[in-house]
Amino acid sequence: MINYSVDGEGIATLEWDLPGRSQNVLNEQSMAAFAEAAQKALADPAVKGIVVASAKADFIAGGDLDMLLKATDAQVLSANLGGWHRLLRTLETTGKPVAAALNGNTLGGGLEVALACHYRVASDNPKARFGFPEVTLGLLPGAGGTQRAPRLMGIQPALLLLTEGKRIKAAEAQKLGLIHAVVPAGSEREAARAWVIEAATKNAVPGRDGKPGKTLQPWDQKGFKVPGGGVMTPAGMQTFMAGNAMLREKTQGNYPAPKHILSCVFEGLQTDIDTGLKSETRYFVNLVLSPEAKNMIRSLFFFMQEANKLAGRPQDVPTQKYTRIGILGAGMMGAGITHAAATAGLQVVLLDTSVEAAERGKAYSAKLLEKRVAKSQLSQDGAAAVLARIHPTTDYADLAGCELVVEAVFEDRALKAEVTKKTEAVISADAIFASNTSTLPITGLAEASARPANFIGLHFFSPAERMPLVEIILGAQTAPATLARAMDFVKAIGKTPIVVNDARGFYTSRVFGTYLSEGMALLQEGVAPALIENAGRIAGMPVGPLALADEVSLELVHKIAKQTRADLGDTYVPRAADQVAALMVEKLKRLGKKGGQGFYDFPANARKHLWAGLAEHFPVRPEQPSLDQVIERLMLIQSIETVRCLEEGVLSSPRDADVGAILGWGYPPFRGGPIGQIHTMGVANFIAACDRLAEQCGDRFRPIESLRKKSAEGSQFFSI
What we know:
By secondary structure, the protein is of the alpha/beta class. 50% of the residues lie in helices and 11% in strands.
């Protein structure tokens, strides 16, 4: 795992090279191997200095998340981490110069290893990034990052890097003081070696005391002061006071990692670094064992990785390479999909009923590209190249040669049937036709197709150019090859797919709708609107359910309810939300944000605010539920509906459920997803809570029998 060599000038190279891995990671085996190699170099009198390098394209990607996900013993974890800290401190204090040659990405634990070296030289590699992304997975840098970074950079810049998880380029890392030098790609190892030789030569000259010199870190030198001032300086205290307030507003207290990072820096910088490392270890172990970190590692890393690697893709289908696609409808959704595809390098035929409408769709991309150029994120030539790939038209004949066509017209069955037939008349027999519908069943829409095996749903989310999720919906006759090729398309444009079977509302719209509906049910019951909205935000949702209903459009919510009632007939179960939406739309003419008024008022020159008239139409009852009770209803209703989707076969895996919820409607990652929430609570506890709510609020909370069976068997959705 560590290639060890010593050259003729006594410089040892410790080269990370984990077998069977595309990247180096820190795990028990690799850390033990590095410790053995480092101790060998430090103990060998012939070794004058050390270069730490990598045989792979990147330096070290960070800690092994599988190891952290499975960790359950605090004492074992603390002991292992303590040993790692002692090793890195030995590297720093023995006196031999140690340099890190950073050829590529240096993240998390990898950057922490580099910071324990006296000198860091990075390759001028445009793809290389440096930073501490641990906070995005509910963790903190546990190998000294919270102690060394602020001692190098100063408190404020270090906290920004540590609490935001940003990944920065080499030039910025050098400017901040994390890296000493940036050199041409391929020369970083020689530059590191040259520095070690120079430092070792200086050390060979005896000092005033007659003893050889030592290479030490800044914080191990006499008179060291934290750049910009320590914790108890005016600047330091102001940083922590403001930082605490900002974090509370941003996280609502749901994410312990940023708060723990502040504590590590606050406590550690008032002591020596060895004491600070012990403090960091306590906070790190607390986070590793927390449900928030387990949920985020499972869902945001492993499940997301599986989804992006197209888990579940039919394996016997060759990978489809896309060059040319078509988009029907140049409205906001069609224009957004067009931009995503053109940016990914695909030729796009953008078709609408008029040249003006099609050109407006292309102009949408032009505006987005102008913003990127203004921010120096893209060159003018690069923007022009993207626009050149978009061909606005009204002629269906231009769709010839498209490997896939996405229909993004209005939610009208007759209109969708018309464009399906016109498109299939000109595209090749093996081309895919995909509908972007968010509510209409795919099997029904496929009835207009002459080739239903090639018909599939691709549900994008608005704004389509930014939202990362695509919900792929299988119709009754959709062929496995069509699914595989559709997944290839989603990956080609940089999105994450989940796969669901055809059903009313599919998965995302169906479960997302329960959050809105429960908020409206609470309103009808006399719960204060401000309490409902604050509960949603404090629970971790992006906005409250009433605000979200306004964003979606109360008119659309009402229209979907009426269509569902008409389609289901006697089997339809009325909901409180239907009555609330009908009152708001039909009687009060409050259609939501697009109409300038809904549950909220939307003044032209002021912030939106809850409509004062709600009190007249939905009187607030004297006794109000607690905040926790409202949160429980808003969150558990999403989980119970997700379980129903699994039971009915709409979803095929809990992975797709959790990934879809987090990416699709902003479900809070610290809960892991709707299924992750059940796992965290425990199935038996979840059932008990839902049974209680069913008695209080109605059968929509009643757990299904398969869930009770799982509880009786003592099984969980996930092993960890």
